[in-house]
Design the sequence.
């Protein structure tokens, strides 16, 4: 497999910079996917992705790791909730919050429920972004399985979800709090003045240089005192280099 040729084509035609990912891990994943669908060369795979939109989407889903659920790692979300209540919402009820690489929307909707609970009359801006338009459209639908809502507290389930035909539909009030946009963490510019940025279980797939760039950009996009919430396997050991201090486990405060 000529990975250089394939990566160049993906960047040009799909707009994803695969060179930003950890190469060994990425190449294993792509080779595994190619074996499953019965192609062996870069040319064969490129030709398949050009003509077959379902395989193209399968590749995108495989690369962008669209696995998510509401309040993933609940004890860590509890820590964020406490900091939002004790610090972030104390002096300003109208927050700017960004859920980066939001996948199926479970994360930004979790944040919206917390905001509605703690500051129901706020006019907060909750941005949710992902690289994959198809997954953004799924997120906008607000339809979830039992396993995806398993961590939602009972009072939130009763207040914000409707059960129909074994699917859980999120309340329109929560849906309307979130603005979804397509965004590439590597190639696109970042908005500024956020009170909270949540980006979990994504940066771990990138190489060190790209990871450093993303953390710098997150820091620049946060207000002083703003919080960055990362995944359970994504401790930032050199957080001081980006102007952060530790606020809690996996939560960093911009100085």
Sequence:
């Amino acid at each position: 497999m000529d990975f250089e040729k394939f990566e160049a084509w993906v960047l040009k035609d799909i707009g994803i910079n695969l060179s930003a990912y950890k190469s060994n891990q990425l190449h294993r994943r792509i080779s595994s996917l190619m074996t499953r669908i019965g192609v062996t060369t870069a040319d064969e795979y490129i030709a398949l992705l050009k003509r077959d939109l379902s395989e193209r989407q399968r590749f995108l889903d495989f690369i962008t790791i669209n696995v998510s659920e509401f309040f993933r790692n609940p004890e860590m979300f509890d820590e964020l909730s406490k900091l939002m209540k004790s610090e972030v919402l104390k002096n300003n009820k109208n927050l700017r919050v960004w859920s980066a690489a939001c996948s199926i929307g479970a994360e930004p909707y979790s944040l919206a429920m917390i905001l509605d609970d703690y500051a129901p009359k706020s006019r907060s801006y909750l941005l949710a972004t992902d690289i994959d338009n198809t997954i953004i459209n799924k997120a906008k639908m607000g339809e979830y399985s039992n396993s995806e809502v398993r961590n939602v507290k009972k009072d939130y389930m009763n207040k914000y979800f409707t059960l129909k035909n074994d699917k859980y539909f999120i309340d329109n009030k929560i849906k309307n709090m979130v603005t979804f946009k397509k965004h590439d963490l590597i190639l696109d510019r970042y908005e500024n003045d956020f009170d909270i940025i949540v980006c979990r279980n994504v940066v771990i797939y990138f190489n060190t240089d790209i990871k450093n760039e993303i953390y710098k950009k997150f820091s620049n996009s946060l207000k002083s005192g703003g919080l960055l919430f990362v995944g359970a396997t994504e401790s930032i050991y050199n957080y001081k280099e980006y102007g952060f201090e530790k606020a809690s486990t996996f939560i960093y405060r911009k100085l």
